Each structure stands twice: as C-alpha cells, then as structure tokens.
Amino acid sequence: MLDVQGLQTIYLAGGRDPIPAVRGIDLHIKSGSATALVGESGCGKSTAALSIMRLIRRPLGDIVGGSIRLDDTELLSLSQSAMRNVLLNEIGYVPQDPTVALDPLYSVRSQIADVCPPASKLERDERMVALLERLGVIDARKRLKSYPHEFSGGMRQRVAIAIALAKDPALLIADEPTTALDVTTQLGILRLLDEMRRERDLTMLFVTHDLAVARLVCQEVAVMYGGIVVETGPIGTIMDRPLHPYSRALLDADSGNAEPQSRLRAIPGQPPSLTAMPAGCPFAPRCPLAEPACSDAVPAVEVHGAVKVRCIKAGQS
Amino acid sequence: MNATTTAARTEVVLEARSVTKVYQAPGGGTVHALDDVDVVVRRRRTLGLVGESGSGKTTLTRMLLALERPTRGDVVFEGTPLAGMSPTELRGYRHGVAAVFQNPYSSLNPRMRIWDAITEQAAIEKSADRKARRGRAMELLELVGLGVTAADRYPHQLSGGQRQRIAIARAISSEPEVIVLDEPLSALDVSVSAQIVNLLLDLQDRLGVTYVFVGHDLRLVRHLCHEVAVMYRGRIVEQGPAVEVLDGPSHHYTDALVTASSLESLADTDDADTKAVPPDGSAGCHYRFRCSARDDQCDTVTPPQAIVDDRLLRCHHPLRVVGRPAPAA
Amino acid sequence: MASPLRADRPSVARPASGLRSRLANRRRWKYPYFSGGVLALFVLSGLIGPLVAPAEPTGIDLANALKPPIGFGGSWSRPLGTDELGRDILSRLLDGARVALIVTIAAVVLAGAVGLAVALISGYRGGRLDAFLMRTTDASMAFPVILLAIVIVGIFGASTLNVVIILTVAGWPSYARVLRSEVLRTKTMDYVTMSRTMGGNGRWAVRRHILPNILPTILVLVSLQVGLAIIAEGSLSFLGLGVPPPAPSWGRMLSDGRKYLDEAWWLPIMPGIALSLTVLASNLLGDWLRVNNDPTTKR
To answer: Is C208 within 8 Å of chain B by CB?
Structure first.
C-alpha cells in the first residue's frame, strides 16, 4: 500500500531561487492495485515518481514537505542507508528507455543477479530463468549470458522488468515503460505488467502521458498539471465524464473518437514551465472556463463521489 | 472499376515505382530496407505511411525527398522521373517536395535566427535578399499561427510546439506541392499536438498542399489521412482509403496494428517481439512468423501485389476481399 | 496530518551566499575578470612591452648584477631585480612575452587551421579518406615532440620559425580529433539533413551549419592550446631548442636561472610565475568561453 500526502519537491539551481516541481500531491494506491500518474511534460509526474524513491537529493533538489508511507514505513524519516535497503528490497523500477537503462558492459545475468535475494548461484540462475520465461523471453537459459545490445527493444524492456521483479518488491514504479516501443510490442508489455500485478499482488504506480494506455493497466488515475493533481479517481469514471477542464482537454486531443479530417478541440498555449508557474490554478491561463477567481489560489480539493478534483468550475462546460 | 470512378480519382503528384533499396550490412550481408515498393500520392490528399521499426518507412521518405537514390526503381514527380533530372528540374523538385521531421529540437540550427532558418532555401538559391527573406518569413510565421516577434529569436527560446510550427513554416516557404512529414507529432505533448493537427488541416485547405504523413499512431493516421499504406519489413502490405483499411483490414498485420492501437483490451496480443524474424531478402511472406493464417505457400511464395480499384494487398489469405469479408474457412 | 521531516533538514532551501557560492557560480560571471585581465596583460606586454620597459632587455650591466626585486632590498628602477649579467628582469619578461605571444599565436592559428581542415574533410566525407586521415593523426600524436624538436633544430638550427613549425606539427592532431567528433555530431543533426532537402550542398552545410556549431569548441580548444603552446615554447627554450639568444624567452630564463635558486631566487621564480599565471589564465578563459558560448547555459 502506498500513501502519499502533501508531497512537495523542489529543484535547486545554483544561486537562483528553488524551483517547485511537485507542489503538494496526494496519492493513495491500495495494495495490489495500480494507479496511473498522467500528465504532459513539466507537470511533475516523473519528479513525483523519483521523489517516492527518494532519488531527488541535494544538490539537485530536495523533498521539502509531505509524507510517503509504504505499507507501515514512513519513507521520509528513514536514514539514507535504510532507504537504500527499501529501494533494494521493496521497490522495483521500470524505466522509460531500456536501451539506456541497462548497462551495456554487463551480461543480463549479472544485472538481474545484482538484485536477487541471496541464494546459491544455482538457485539464483533457476529463479532468473523462470522469471525471464514467464516474461516471454524465448531461450531464456541461453540468453542469460547475452548482453543488452543483443536484444530488441521489447526484449530489453522485459529484462528491465525482470530486474525490477527479481527482488519480489512490494511496490512497482513504471515510468512510461512502453513509450519507446512499437505499438504491437507495447500491448505485450502492458499485458505482462497487468499479469504480474495480479500474480504478485503488486502495488503499482504507472507514470504515462497516454490515458488510453493507462486505462488498460490501471484502476485509478491521478491527472497532474503544473505540479499538482487536478483530478483523481477511478479511471473509467474520469475518462467517461471528466470533471476538470484539463482532463477533458486531454481526452479531446485524442483523435481516436473524432470525425476524420475534422478539427480537434485544441486548447491554445503550452504547459507552464517550472520557472514561470502561474499563480493560483496552473491551468487558468489556458482554460476555456477560467475566471479571475481561478488565479487567486490553487483550488481546494472537492469531492464528487469517487472522484476528487481541484477546480472551482468542476463538471461545468 | 468504371469510367466514373477513374475520373473521380484525383491526379497523381508523386509516386514511387518498384522502389528497392538494399544496404550493405556492416558485418557482411545485405539489408533490404525497401523491396519493390509502389506508392501513389494524389494531389490535395494525405497519404499515411504506417509501420513499425524496421518497416522501411523512414527509408521510403528519404527516397521521396531525394536524399538517397533507390537501388532499383524510381521516384516520379509530376510525371518526371527523378533519375536523369537536369539540375533545373532537380531544383524544381526541391521546391515541390518539402519535409518536416520528428524532432523539433534537432531540426533547427541553434545558432540561426528563426527568420533565417525559415527562408534558408531562398538563401541557398540566392533568390531573394535579406529584406525580402525577412518579409517572407513574417508572412509564413503568421500563416502558422505565430507572432512576428518570433522572427528574431533563436530556437532555444521557443517551445517544442512552436518549433514544429517553425518547421512547417519552413516547409511551406517554397510553396511546395507535397510535404513529407515524418512523425511530426510524436515528440509533442498531447495538448500541443492537437493544435498542430488543426494547423495541418487548415494549411491543406488554404494552400491545397498534399501530405505524406508518416506516423505510428493509427488513431491519428485515421483522423488525418485520406489514404494509408501499411508497411512491413520493406514491403507495402496493404494500401487504400484510410477509413476503409483501418476499419476493415484485409492484411493480418494491419489487423494486428489496428487492434494494438485501439488499446481496447489486453487480450489478442501479438507479442511481436517474441517471434522470429525472416532472413533478409528471402522469398515468402515476411509476416508469416506472426500470422495465424500461415501455410506452406506463405513460407515459399512472396505474395504478389494484388490491385483492385484503389486497394493494394500482398497476402495469400486476406482477412477480407475488398468490400466483402473473407468466406469462412 | 503529514508527519514532520527530520529536524536537521531545513524546510526551505536557503539561497546560496558567500564566497563559496560565488566560486560555484563563476560560470555565471558575465565577464572573465581574472583570466581576461591576465591575458590582456600578456598581450599588452607583447605589443608595447619594449616601450614601457624600464631598461634594455639585453643591456648588460655587470656592476648591478643579481640585484633583488622591490620589497627585498631592490629599487624601483629594477622592480623585479636583475640577473647575473645585470639585465633588468622585468624588461626581459616583457620582451619574452613578445616572443611567446608571436610564437604561440602563430602555432595555435596554424595548428588550428590544419586541424580544422583535417577534421572537416575527415568528418564530413567519411569513408576511406576519413580512415586514412585519422591514422595519420594518430601517428602524429604518437610521435614525441621533443624528439621532433631535436631533429629539426639539429638539421636546420634554432630559430623562431622552426619553433613555430615544431609547435604546429605537434599541435594540429589535438584539434583534428576533437573537431572531427564535433563535425560527426553536427553532421547527423536534422537541420543539416533539412538543408539537403532544400538543395544545399556540402559546402553550404559546412559553412552555414557545421562551422557555426563547432565554433564554441574551437574557441575553447584555442584558449587551452594557447596555454599548452606557451608551456611547449618554454620547454623548448628551457632545453635550448627554442628561440635562440640573445632574444629573451621565459623558458630559457627559467633554465639559466636555475643555478641561482639559492642566492638569487628571483631569477628562476619570476619567469616561472609569468608562465604559470599565463597558462592558468588561458585555461580559465577556456572554461568561461565554453560555458558562455552555449546558449543553453548562458545567463
């Protein structure tokens, strides 16, 4: 179970003022279920994921507020070495680009073995082969000795997932794991992640920019914009009836449902940069429903059934 | 099928005829990046090229942009073959066929001001002086929805979406007949790519330009393109009107792509990367290792191009015959 | 509701202050005060040194030999002291700056030109020409400079021109290798491919796209090579292979002054300081140039 409350993360840039990247987000992921963190570039989703793993450290940045509870442990009050222990044993990370995430100098076997629980060499090898076969790697025993560059993109991602799962983690964080892959490979990897979650009762945080992909693997979604979560709840509910104008804009931008050749409902402008964050609601400058009150303060959380949203005009159009 | 249909078809502005491109692999051996590819681009229509990595769609764009010459076959622009074009004709080609690439960060020289980058072609040809080029750049900036203040800026001062607009402005600066766009939206944020989609549609209406749109997102391709050509390992396996092909695929690969892109369910996965790959340049259907309809014929005989009306298909056992679903097996 | 963070961690980062942050932020200095100043001094000395020198650099005055510098018992007429022949050290340093400047600039410019040409041809054309040129570069780099100097000076004698030749031959491979990889990096950029679709040929690509984008690297290389050339010139003179007497050279001043380290320390120390400062300044300038020429790290 992962429970994040009021997480605040900043980036430090030399003599300049600190730059807030995550400005107070809440995430609750029940054990064995998956939540998607959805947003565009600069929204803070990757920073949030790294913060949960406490990989944002001085001098690059710092976590300056909030709490992160993994099961019963408050991660922010752990010492460095205790946190490293948690990362090693409890948290698995699947990266965006497996090409740069795997070390080209080491064989697949040594990279997975690094994170396996201590056991005899033979036992470890058996575990690894079983895991790789389960993940769809053909000829797993032979491929154990291979090097990353000898694999295709999809296979490399399977190896990356193996590394993440070999330690039998409680929490799996996947950061855009299929963005760099072909669409037919993507489906295979997504199915794998879903199966793994069910089989191992994993708690999963799935970072992505694509709501449609998220819907396949996750039960809940948190939509991020400008460092805050603007809407969160069951993914089906939100995609069918988005309450926040930004969620609706994301869905409108998907051409899948529009008439061919028609104009899409596009919002002007681009996502705010971290250094020039608007006051109040970060979406106000682009929002078709914005009014002066929107820029006064970041809207408070309103509850609409199972969905929580930060918008004073939630549900209106 | 009859005279009315033929007359209704708009004229061909650009085509690839039996284009084959073979590269030498570094460790010896060959790579058939393109194998006997026939593609027809019609005026004022958008042709989508879809395919995954290794499909050859990037190589095909390089052929269409005359960046490389085919090993066999040729590219024909407005009736004139590329091979044997005089320098003047080639210049006309470079005016008539423009490009927009995927990466908005590497497609603009970081040390060149925007107005300079947009009108680079005029500078290369020395066809206009600085003043004229600046003026033209301002016009183009307005056409693509950017203010004229962008003219004196440098690329790093603009966002990804703005840079893509600049790339489009540069492409239309020579008033081309055809613009080849290679995954122009893939590197953009979702909310921004919607704006660019609208821009492309607007420009097509206003300027009457033809697009060749290379993409991997079938939802987008179905939305933007009138026609689509599906490529697999260097061959066109299916081509036809976009909505027809994508809503009712005949080739198994098209079907797999459509299912995978629809993101409707996790079932029916192809698990593509777990399957073997045919040796380069061999006969037989390249898709046979992933295909459920595979038989001996598929293993030995390369499926020929079957053309019926405006549909093209390379398959021994299509999912459906044009207009009708395939008879039950 | 949120549990507090550990007490020893501040809740908000303090903005940096003080000398440490200034040093860390030196990349944001708008002008390179120290390095620019020292190098300006160097160039100035080279240009007008003889005019402001207190005395003749080669003026022998045995009565005033081994006079200490100011602050150690000397006088203002000979601010840095005199050497064993009574020659004013400051004047000799200024004159030596001239020699160092000429030799350095010539060598750096020539080596840079050759290296850039090789890099452009090699990187842009590629293929067998590239392979051949790179092997030549490797071979040149492997050849020891001192040996080359001994051979050239042995056959043709010592002269300013020969020093320039030696430094050029020794220096061009570094340019060639670094700039070639820059050319390769730039060549594959989409904007270069773009210019080909617009009808631009190789010369256009090199002139308008590749050169401007490798310019920052060239500037950094040049400033670093200046330092190396000064040291090289100094080393050659130290070994007697450099610019021949009576023209003063910092390196030879160092060499000749060594034996006086105990009784007249200023003889070797002064040229040593001059050499060190100039080289340090050129390295710092190179660093500043690198940061300030990159539009993404500039302020």
So the answer is: yes
C298 within a domain of the structure (yes/no): no
Indicate the helix (H) or strand (E) that contains A187: helix A183-200
Tokens linked to B166: 């600049």
**Partner residue opposite B124 with nearest CB, options C191, C199, C213:** C199
Q: Count the domains in chain C.
A: 1
Domain contains C10: no
Contacts 24+ apart (CB under 8 A), B152-157: B152/B113, B152/B114, B152/B115, B153/B113, B153/B114, B154/B110, B154/B111, B154/B112, B154/B113, B154/B114, B154/C295, B155/B105, B155/B108, B155/B109, B155/B110, B155/B112, B155/B114, B155/B117, B156/B110, B156/C295, B156/C296
What is the phi/psi pair of residue B231, to 5°?
Answer: -115, 145
In terms of CA atoms, which chain B residue is nearest residue C297?
B156
Amino acid at B276: A
Within 200-219 of B, beta carbons closer than 8 Å to A belong to: 201, 216-219
Is the distance from CB of A278 to CB of A272 less than 8 angstroms?
yes
- Mind listing the domains of chain B with CATH numbers? 3-110+171-268+304-322 (3.40.50.300), 112-153 (no CATH)
CATH of the domain at C109: 1.10.3720.10
- Of residues B53, B194, B261, nearest to A253 (C-beta): B194
Q: Which chain A residue is nearest to residue C27, measuring alpha carbons?
A: A14
Cβ-based neighbours of C293, under 8 Å, separated by 6 or more: C215, C216, C219, C220
Is C5's CB within 8 Å of A76's CB?
yes
Closest to A161 measured CA to CA, from A198, A221, A111: A111
Instruction: Kindly state the DSSP code that residue B253 receives in the 8-state scheme.
Output: H
pTM here is 0.85
How far apart, in Å, are the Cα atoms of C131 and each of A40, A102, C182?
A: 45, 31, 16
Per-residue tens of pLDDT for chain C, all 299 residues? 333 333 333 333 344 445 555 555 555 566 778 888 888 888 888 788 777 777 777 778 888 788 888 888 778 888 888 888 888 888 888 888 888 888 888 889 999 999 999 999 999 888 889 999 999 999 988 888 888 889 988 999 888 888 899 999 988 999 999 999 999 999 999 999 999 999 988 899 999 999 999 988 898 888 888 888 888 888 888 888 888 877 788 888 888 888 888 888 888 998 899 888 888 888 888 888 877 766 555 43
Asked if residues C11 and A64 have their Cβ atoms less than 8 Å apart, the reply is yes
Subunits with 3+ C-beta pairs closer than 8 A to B: A, C
User: What is the Cα–Cα distance from B153 to C248, expressed in whole angstroms?
Assistant: 51
ipTM: 0.85
- CB of B51 within 8 A of CB of B16? no
Residue among C3, C17, C299 with most chain A CBs within 10 A, to mutate: C3
Does any domain span residue C203?
yes
Core vs surface per residue A142-152: b (16+ CB within 10 A) or e = ebbebebeebb
* B226-244 tens-digit pLDDT: 999 999 999 999 999 999 9
**Residue among B22, B97, B191 at smallest CA distance from A252:** B191
Which residues of chain B are within 8 Å of residue A182 when distances are taken between CB atoms? 52-53, 216, 272
Indicate the pairing of strand B320-321 with strand B324-325. Answer: antiparallel
Q: Which chain B residues are within 8 Å of C190, Cβ to Cβ?
A: 101, 103, 106-107
What percent of chain A lies above the pLDDT cut of 70? 99
Residue C17 lies in a domain: no
Q: Which of C170, C199, C169, C192 is nearest to C123 (CA)?
A: C192
> Helix or strand or coil: residue A240?
helix
CB nearest A270 (choices: B159, B242, B256): B159
Residue range(s) defining the domain that contains residue C103: 32-52+68-293
